[in-house]
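ingest -> validate -> predict -> emit
validate: passed (alphabet ok, no gaps, 138 aa)
predict: started
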Amino acid sequence: MPTLQTPVIVAAAVLIEGGRVLITQRKKGTHLAGAWEFPGGKVEPAEDPRDALVRELREEIGIEAVVGDPVEVTFHKYPEKSVLLLFFAVTRRDGSPEPQALDVAAVKWAAAEALDEALFPPADVPILAKVRALLGAS
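emit:
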């Protein structure tokens, strides 16, 4: 008999500067280690997704962020869990430092064509076309 699995809710940033989008690489020992993704992380119970994203960006890449409008919502079912991804437009606060790999393997600014070369988790794939379009408009 099928069971209802509560999805993990994740808030992720679409942070575009100078015609490039910020992506981070997952650390060894984590789910889908080595894959590139949009920075962010799990939303804790009773936490606002925007607050979770500000917290995760501070913890993982050391930036102070301003979270804007939602860009996309995606759902993906992995064999071991389901993920509901909430993607938000994000900017860095004035005076915020450059992103650095504090709790991720690496950070990089990627142009649209570089997104085709990076390995992304299946849950992130649905937003790639929209991000490419946003990069073309920036």
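Residues 54 and 65 are 6 Å apart (CA to CA).
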